[in-house]
Amino acid sequence: xxxxxxxxxxxxxxxxxHVAYVEAESLYEAVALAVxxxxxxxxxxxxxxxxxxxxxxxxxxxxxxVRLKQVTKWAEHTTREGPAGVIKRERVxxxxx
Length: 97
Fold this sequence. Notes:
Elements: E1 4-11, E2 17-24, H1 27-40, E3 52-57, E4 62-67, H2 68-74, H3 82-96
Antiparallel strand pairs: 1-2, 1-3, 3-4
Helix pairs in contact: 1-2, 1-3
């Protein structure tokens, strides 16, 4: 899949909505890139494992809801998808820290 521009957002415990725009090749990579950017900023509330993210693709218009816990679980090491899958998972793990 080619990289797509994505809008990734979540609502914190105080009801504030945080938005990041990223270029990603997968849904999980989009969340990981956004979390990387959110953690880099001085936010009062950081996303946790049960934080639900909304991921919207610019083209075609598609929206997904994903919990950080799902992204973390997906990023666990496996060789099931071959070398390309290993590299994708390593990248997501590195972004999540």
